[in-house]
Structures are given as structure tokens and as C-alpha cells.
Amino acid sequence: MTTQITKGIKISVITSFEGTFFKNYKMHFAFGYTITIENQSKDSVQLTSRHWQIYDSLNDLEILNGEGVIGKKPVLRPGQSHTYSSGCLLTSTIGAMKGHYNMVNLNNSEKFRVQIPNFKFSAPFVLN
């Protein structure tokens, strides 16, 4: 598990290898990740958007931006957490992701950024 805390918001990431398949006549490697966002601060916050940098060892950097996470903009009161799962396709057996969430403090309307720690993907048959 990979974790990082920014301004009282703890991000924890667990990754998994989901398998291989062909898409557009090319082999792809599917990886999953589960992220828990835990509010350890004294204020209520809301996640508004996300920014991802996806690294594929055989491909160019891919940058993704979007509203919320999996269609939700969770509000977290102090002590609450939100967990979701998603995934990505790589053309290689090794890669990584990192990024940030844009959030707003609901007590004072301050916008802030929460770093998502760099987490790695590797197919289990690649590394000894």
C-alpha cells in the first residue's frame, strides 16, 4: 500500500494486476487500483476534480483530467473516508500513475490540492 497525507487528507492506494487481452490487434495489460481518501482534518471537504499522469514504459505519458471520481464528488466530514476502485490499460507490463485531487474546504471555501502518491504497476510474471 502507498500512502500520502496533504493538508490532513490521507490518500492510500492498493494496486492489482487484472490480466491481459487484445484490443485493436495489440496486447494490453489491465491494472486495477483502489484508493481510499480519508479526512483527518478538522474541516469538511469536497473532492471536485482529479488530475492523472499515467506512465507506460512502452508508451508516451498520458494526462487525464476530469470531474470528481467515478462520477462522484464526495463530501468528507472529519473522520470520514471514501473508497473507490478504477483501472487503466497499459501496452507494457510495467507502469505508474500519480496525480492530485482538487478539493474545497467547505468551512471556509478555500480550494486546495491533495497529492496522490506515485504508485507502480507491474505484472506479477515480470518481476522476481
From TrEMBL:
SUPFAM superfamilies: ApaG-like. It comes from the Bacteria. GO terms for biological process: error-free translesion synthesis. Residues 3-128 form the ApaG domain. It holds the Pfam family DUF525. This is ApaG protein. It comes from Arenibacter nanhaiticus. The lineage of its organism: Bacteria, Pseudomonadati, Bacteroidota, Flavobacteriia, Flavobacteriales.
